[in-house]
Amino acid sequence: MADAQLCGSVNLESADAVFAAIADISGSTVHRVPDGETGERQQWIMAQMPRFAANPDFTRPNGETGFAYGARPDFRLREGLSPDEASFDLGYAVGATESYPLFRRLRDEGRFTPDTRFQVSLPTQMAIVGVFIDPSQQALIAPVFERALATEIDTILETVPAGDLALQWDVAVEFSRLEGGIDGVPASAEEEQAILDQLVRLGDLVPDLVELGYHLCYGDAPEAPGETGKHFKQPEDTSRLVRVANAIVDGVRRRVDWIHMPVPIERDDDAYFAPLQHLHLPPETRLFLGLVHWQDGVEGTQRRIDAAARHAIGFGVATECGMGRRPREVVPTLLQIQREVTVPAR
Fold first, then answer.
1. What's the 3-state SS for the chain?
2. Which of 83, 107, 166, 231 could, after both became Cys, cross-link 211 (CB 3.0–4.6 A)?
């Protein structure tokens, strides 16, 4: 049995169904439980598109309000409005307010261990501003949106006690920029530093009593609605993930509780995991490797664990990304794999 981390999204019909599945299958292997980001929060940041379209502070130059998945909408500030006057309706606090009482009831009933926390995942500033805002206005909107994220955390904490909350930053758009996934040109050293500085600032927005984690991600976006999705680029190895993780834990002033890294299904070779030897996480920060894949089950997952264990010790397991775009029928299988595999002790 291995400690397991859930990345956030789960393709089940409701938060009730997500909590019940985790309680029934995962048991004590999971200590942070998300609500699955069901309903309007499906498809990660794409849920923000209709919110921007309905926001009177933003317009689209061509007036279009229909969206295709993955299309750049290029919203701009309404004429005459200063960046500091812009407001955002994000919806994450509303989702937490609705789901937390369900989680707490199950925990009070003993379905989760007493130390289990309610997990909320948030997109980074770059994930929203870098995708939805016209490039000419991104530098103006970025600091305003970071303040909006801080406000969203404060609003969540009005419902969820800090000692019950685990907050995860979803870091995917940043890796696309670093790897040149947008225009084929990897980020310059200056751009990379700006990305790392942003991730550190976001960590420092989270109060000390709240658990803090980072889901480092190479994307899982489908090319069309209904598809399962794939990385924008397969990571060559864990070296870039290690550099970003080291920068986070070195820079954030508060404790970082976990770092998650993806592992492609075909990577059970030493070359992929060898850079983990250069990872310098403090003792309080747990590494979770996203090496659980339903296609090859316990056997394949255990093979990847054994390869990783030659270069890192004491890690937990997870899926490569969220389960939101996995076929619904394999969600129980993924939870079961996480429960059945074993990882060498710290």
1. CCCECCCCEECCCCHHHHHHHHHHHHHHHECEEECECCHHHCCHHHHHHHHHHHCCCEECCCCCCCCCCCCCCCEEECCCCCHHHCCCCCCHHHHHHHHHHHHHHHHHCCCCCCCCEEEEEEECHHHHHHHHECHHHHHHHHHHHHHHHHHHHHHHCCCCCHHHEEEEEEECHHHHHHHCCCCCCCCCHHHHHHHHHHHHHHHHCCCCCCEEEEEECCCCCCCCCCCCCCCCCCCCCCHHHHHHHHHHHHHCCCCCCEEEEECCCCCCCHHHHHHHHHCCCCCCCEEEEEEECCCCHHHHHHHHHHHHCCCCCCCEEEECCCECCCCHHHHHHHHHHHHHCCCCCC
2. 166
